[in-house]
Specification:
Number of helices: 4
Strand content: under 5%
């Protein structure tokens, strides 16, 4: 149960900073306010954002239940997580967060927020390539090598 509390705490801090606080600041600096009415654009944004949030939540739960750890680099899973959304791609949490940001950008009609989503995905890619993948290889060896050879980094079926 303690692992779930840690996972929820770290996820809330990440979500609060990267997916709520920074986007809110970007919108504020751009002078963009919440739309007065909800139209098709806002519904599309909410659907994309909700899909992203659901993926992130699924990842956090899978990290805690299967990996017995958290998404935080300083408290990683004790076991390699290759179930749940990790069956389809190796980095679904970043994809979910990127979708949540893109959904907010669509909802508000904000190119600045869309740019932030792009910067987030770009930074995530470099973090994955330069830190996560070497760390996972050192931690899980052949098991990670096999997983990496069968599951794509960002797209299902593309290694």
């Amino acid at each position: 149960m303690f692992v779930f509390a840690r996972a929820v705490t770290y996820a809330a801090l990440f979500i609060g900073l990267v997916l709520i606080y920074v986007p809110a600041r970007l919108l504020s600096w751009s002078g963009i306010a919440r739309p007065a009415t909800i139209g098709v654009q806002q519904v599309v944004g909410m659907v994309i954002g909700a899909a992203g949030a659901a993926i992130v939540l699924w990842c956090v739960i899978t990290f805690a239940s299967v990996g017995r750890g958290t998404p935080a680099p300083f408290d990683p899973p004790r076991r390699l997580v290759i179930r749940g959304p990790y069956r389809f791609v190796r980095n679904p949490m970043y994809i979910g967060a990127g979708l949540a940001l893109a959904g907010a950008a669509v909802f508000y009609g904000s190119l600045r927020l869309l740019g932030y989503a792009g910067v987030f995905i770009f930074a995530a890619h470099f973090f994955v390539v330069w830190y996560e993948e070497p760390t996972l290889l050192r931690s899980f060896g052949k098991e990670y090598e096999t997983y990496r050879g069968t599951v794509g980094r960002w797209w299902s079926g593309v290694r």
